[in-house]
Amino acid sequence: MDRTQQETETRSSGRDAGTTDLTGAGRSRSDVGYRGTVRRLLRARMAPVGLLVILILILSAIFAPWIAPFEPREQNFAVALESPNTTYFMGTDQLGRDTFSRVVYGSRVSLQVGVIAVGISLLVGTTLGLIAGYAGVSFIDSLIMRFMDALLAFPALVLALAITAALGPSLTNVMIAVGIVGIPIYARLVRGQVLSVRQREYVEAARTVGVPDFLIITRHIFPNVTAPLIVQASIGVAVAIIAEASLSFLGLGVQPPTPSWGGMIAVGKDWLGRAPWMSFAPGVAIFVTVLAFNFVGDALRDALDPHMRNL
Fold first, then answer.
1. DSSP states of 143-205 as a string?
2. CA proximity to 146, closest of 192, 120, 176, 184
3. How far apart are CA 119 and CA 167, in angstroms?
4. What are the pLDDT digits (tens) for 198-237?
């Protein structure tokens, strides 16, 4: 009787253990892939806040003509240096232009520079990194990396200033300058990843059966190095926004009367004692935007890291 009861308990515990294992396996399967990445991203503490701020920024840039109560270039000297009130939420500048409307329209410039400049850095840097990494230790690798080292030898802002000064101050040239400055970061990142991936068994197998190098790079190597690129690109947008604001502040970026957050701070610094809102409003916009992209970048890093899936 005792032996029968013991066998029954053993079978029951085995069934329970099997059920637990299946449940754990199901949970691990649900935590991988696109849905698992999104779930881990939203689980991060500050990621939803960052995503919400970025969404508001994008909507503000798209629907600026409907959100802004005034035309950003409209001058009205009768209300010059008006303090914030119900009509002018963020006050007016020395020419009577509505600060809130200019901040809203300035988001267009910041997002445009952030996305396009990062796109230039990402496209050129990734291409060079793939070529250098796949070539391995060779003349091509040394040539590309020494050129990247030469670009990194210059401080980023100084190099951007030099390029913009040579091309001339304009929005297009700012995007080109900021994009060139970011190329070495992506090239070195991709090269390091490719040097690791190119030694994997599936790459060696593809090379053995005669798959062309271009197909090996695009189908077998590049998809496995995209995770760090996504993280770097999200943080790179914040860096590009700061770079554009710095160039505009120094007079080499977007030219007046086009509203730019950096340009607004440059004008407002002369009126800090009488109208501090002229610099405070665009400064807060830059701070919140950059912080939001950093929140999302940190969350993406954790979500795409395979070592974080079991935490």
1. HHHHHHHHHHTS-HHHHHHHHHHHH-SSHHHHHHHHHHHHHHHHHHHHHHHHHHHTTSHHHHH
2. 184
3. 20
4. 888 888 888 888 889 899 888 888 888 888 898 899 999 9
Tokens in use for 41?
């991203």
Q: Which two tokens stand for residue 248?
A: 């505009």
Q: Under CATH, which number does the domain 48-308 receive?
A: 1.10.3720.10
Q: Provide φ and ψ at 272, rounded to 5°.
A: -60, -35
Spatial distance between the Cα atoms of 90 and 281, rounded to a whole number of angstroms? 7
As given in the structure block, the two tokens for residue 205 are 């197998």
Tokens 């950096």 belong to: 262
Q: What are the phi and psi torsion angles at 64 (to 5°)?
A: -55, -40
**69-86: pLDDT as tens digits:** 999 999 999 999 999 999
Query: Per the structure block, which two tokens stand in for 155?
Result: 């401080």
Cα–Cα distance for residue pair 206/39, rounded to 1 Å: 34
Q: Which residue has the tokens 């086009």?
A: 258
- Residue 295: phi and psi, rounded to 5, are -60, -45
Neighbours of 250 (CB within 10 A): 17
Helix (H, G, I), strand (E, B) or coil at 92: strand
